[in-house]
Design goal:
Elements (H helix, E strand, L loop, with lengths): L11 H6 L1 H9 L24 H49 L14 E5 L5 E6 L1 E2 L10 H11 L11 H13 L13 H8 L14 H8 L4 H17 L2 H11 L6 E2 L1 H9 L8 H9 L4 H4 L5 H17 L5 H9 L6 H5 L3 H10 L12 E5 L3 H18 L7 E7 L5 E5 L18 E2 L5 H10 L7 E4 L4 E3 L3 E3 L10 E4 H6 L3 H11 L1 H11 L17 E2 L1 H12 L3 E4 L3 E6 L7 E2 L3 E5 L3 H17 L13 E6 L5 E7 L4 E7 L14 H13 L57 H14 L5
Parallel strand pairs: 1-5, 3-4
Antiparallel strand pairs: 1-2, 5-15, 6-7, 6-20, 8-13, 9-12, 10-11, 14-17, 15-16, 18-19, 19-20
């Protein structure tokens, strides 16, 4: 072509894409459309020889991975099915429990037996028996401090979990293992919901045919272990589905046992603090919440300091979790919970036991109802008696002595105002030495001899012969009583004989008025035990309880009428106004004339004024009483009265070990005086109703002494030398060696009539 100089004219593609595109086309072989460039030769790679060790390691790891994946596929294939089956079982179990759960109101009181609450003479609570239930209280009505203390102590995640806390269980297992216990021994990691499930015994009701007692039933319900934990899970889930959190807390607050016979927080608050659970403050709430761990161990009535230490731990938890500010926590620690007067004094324990015994069992010891008993107890007098006894033993009895004592204080009508059955305040049901111990009365029996004499017309100014006496006892031989000091005083007045507690005049008067008359007077005044039939009756060889003796002396104070000691005024069911049982004791039939009682009262005032009971003298108060000490000083008594109260004191050993250097006019008189001084605080002295006899001239001979014996049908005694007038007296000769042996033997079995 012209003008081309032999060159090919540029193609359109060349003009479009430029020379570079044309070169590329040319390099592709001239490049027509669809042509491909020749393949580019790959660079020559250097071959590297493979390490046999690396290959082996890779192969081993591959094998292990394959095995792991193999078993994983098996486990996954089986595991999810097992998990699904477990979930199904748990779900069905939870649904079953859900369908069985009743309304909350039916679960709050789970007791099978009732309780007895006792009120003193002013209507204040002083004692409880059985498990007390304070009535249903809802969780939103209790003090916020109490609600927060329980949650902080028992289950801090209570409001966030669904009934079971895996985190809590894992933490509990870790703690148990670290302390050397089994995984589920000790801390169980239970939520409050699980604890409620346990309190409900997983829905198993108490059946008296299956369980020996309610205690055995509850002990089984509280058992731990893996299987019990497993069963708790669906029950707890069912409760979470059935009830709200507030309702679960309500069940917990009402069913938890909190020591000292208190079931539920309302009962515990009343028991320990004398207030409702809605009124407790932070320190009181902490103490109550602390009881949940070990109710009996941390009960403040058992050990107040231990309970306060536990409460401080709870206060720390409440502060840590934000329920209390630092200042509130410090305030709670600085002002620890104080027990109520009734809980702190623990008064009336022995008295309460006696009252429980005096009522019918189905309304007291075995009651299935909640019972209220109004009693005669005066808590001020009870504290006075307890304090006086404690002080005398601390100041006048050698340390470590195991000697025991008992005290009874009552009004003239037999209403018991205070009772101390032993030196130590012990658990309910302990041996009560005031009501259960039958002991020889010694010379404390002598007022009944002179009561019989006064009723027959004797005068305190009459005379009696205090000279040696031997009585022939049928079947036993001669019996020769002696005075405590082994001395004889000759002719003395009856008043002098009583105030000096002379034995021989007591025997002479007994034989003169007749033993049967003395037995009758004593039994009608309230001495219920069998009274001795022989002449030793006069020396107090018969047995009686302190309550009987104090009641008998009350008959002298009230003018000669018998009294039946009583402590129960009325018994009613809680919530009822009509009493089921009323007072059964009080003043009964007349035993001796009023004049005789007032003459005897005068004689007994002289015992304290100038006789064996001088240590019982009350400054500013007129008092009457009598000492008593039995053979070998195994028992020592002092019983007496003022115009306001009668009090009796007994002292001795439970095993009949003789007291060392103790007579009725010693420590028992000291205790009596201390009791009566405290009992009469705030009262105005009142004179005793007594008759002072006209003095008489002493007789010149024994023929003028009023000791005429009453003939005895049994013939079990006779005078050694009866005189012509019918009077009788012993021969003045000293006893022979044989008689002395018989006397000593009979003395061992016949008691002693010491002061």
């Amino acid at each position: 072509m012209s003008g081309s100089n032999g060159r090919r004219p540029p193609l359109i593609a060349d003009r479009r894409y430029g020379p570079s595109a044309a070169k590329k086309t040319a390099s592709n072989g001239g490049g027509g459309r669809g042509s491909k460039p020749p393949p580019k030769a790959a660079p020559r790679r250097r071959t590297k020889k493979r390490d046999p060790l690396s290959a082996a390691v890779a192969w081993v790891f591959g094998l292990i991975w394959g095995v792991v994946m193999f078993f994983w596929r098996i486990l996954w294939g089986v595991g999810w099915r097992i998990l699904a089956a477990v979930a199904l079982v748990v779900g069905l179990s939870a649904y079953y429990f859900y369908s069985q759960l009743p309304e909350v109101a039916q679960l709050v009181d789970g007791r099978a037996r009732g309780s007895v609450t006792m009120l003193d003479r002013e209507g204040k609570v002083f004692a409880w028996r059985g498990e007390t239930y304070g009535g249903m209280v809802t969780s939103d009505k209790v003090s916020k401090y109490l609600r927060e203390a329980v949650v902080a102590t028992e289950d801090r995640r209570f409001y966030r979990h669904f009934g079971v806390s895996p985190r809590g269980i894992a933490s509990a297992v870790r703690i148990n293992l670290s302390e050397g216990r089994g995984p589920l021994e000790g801390n169980g990691g239970s939520t409050i919901t699980q604890q409620v499930a346990k309190l409900l015994c997983l829905g198993v009701q108490y059946d008296p045919k299956e369980w020996k007692s309610e205690a055995d039933y509850e002990a089984d319900c509280r058992k731990g272990g893996i299987w019990r934990k497993v069963k708790e899970v669906p029950f707890a889930l069912a409760m979470e589905a059935k009830y709200t959190k507030a309702e679960i807390l309500t069940i917990y607050f009402n069913r938890a046992y909190l020591g000292a016979g208190a079931r539920g927080f309302e009962a515990a608050a009343q028991r320990y603090f004398g207030k409702s659970a809605s009124e407790v403050n932070a320190s009181e709430a902490a103490m109550l919440a602390g009881l949940l761990k070990a109710p009996s161990y941390y009960a403040p009535t058992a050990n107040l300091e231990r309970a306060r230490d536990r409460a401080n731990v709870i206060i720390g938890l409440m502060e840590e979790q934000g329920y209390l500010t630092r200042s509130e926590a410090d305030q709670a620690r600085a002002h620890p919970a104080q027990l109520s007067e009734a809980a702190q004094s623990r008064s009336g324990g022995f008295f309460a036991d006696w009252v429980m015994e005096s009522g019918p069992a189905f309304l007291t010891r075995d009651t299935t109802e909640d019972v209220i008993i109004r009693t005669t107890l005066d808590q001020r007098l009870q504290r006075a008696a307890e304090g006086a006894l404690d002080d005398v033993f601390k100041t006048k009895v050698s340390e470590g002595s195991k000697a025991q004592a008992a005290v009874v204080v009552m009004s003239a009508d037999g209403a018991v105002r205070a009772m101390v059955g032993g030196r130590k305040v012990q658990a309910a049901g302990s041996f009560n030495r005031a009501t259960q111990a039958l002991r020889q009365t010694g010379s404390a029996f002598k007022p009944f001899i002179y009561a019989a004499a006064m009723d027959l017309g004797y005068s305190p100014a009459d005379f009696v012969d205090d000279s040696p006496l031997t009585v022939m006892v049928k079947g036993s031989g001669p019996w020769s009583p002696s005075n405590y000091d082994r001395k004889f005083r000759g002719i003395v007045t009856l008043t002098s004989a009583l105030k000096q507690s002379l034995n021989i005049p007591a025997v002479r008067i007994t034989e003169a008025v007749g033993r049967e008359k003395v037995r009758q007077v004593a039994s009608e005044f309230g001495i219920q035990s069998d009274l001795a039939a022989g002449p030793a009756l006069a020396l107090g060889v018969s047995e009686a309880t302190l309550l009987e003796m104090t009641g008998a002396y009350a008959g002298i104070l009230n003018g000669g009428s018998a009294v039946k000691p009583y402590g129960l005024v009325e018994l009613r069911l809680q919530g009822e106004d009509t009493p089921l049982i009323g007072q059964e004791g009080g003043i009964g039939e007349r035993v001796i004339s009023e004049q005789a009682a007032q003459l005897l009262t005068y004689m007994m005032t002289q015992v304290i004024e100038s006789g064996t009971g001088a240590r019982a003298r009350l400054p500013g108060w007129e008092a009457a009483g009598k000492t008593g000490t039995t053979q070998a000083a195994r028992d020592a008594w002092f019983v007496g009265f003022t115009a306001d109260y009668v009090a009796g004191v007994w002292m001795g050993y439970d095993d009949n070990t003789p007291l060392k250097g103790v007579t009725g006019g010693g420590l028992p008189a000291d205790i009596w005086r201390e009791v009566m001084v405290r009992v009469h605080e705030g009262l105005q002295p009142q004179p005793l109703k007594k008759i002072v006899p006209e003095p008489r001239m002493p007789p010149q001979t024994t023929a003028d002494v009023r000791t005429d014996p009453v003939p005895q049908d049994t013939g079990d005694w006779q005078a050694q030398r009866p005189n012509d007038t019918g009077d009788w007296q012993a021969a003045p000769r000293p006893p022979s060696a044989g008689e002395q042996i018989v006397r000593d033997v009979l003395g061992i079995f016949g008691g002693g009539g010491r002061n």
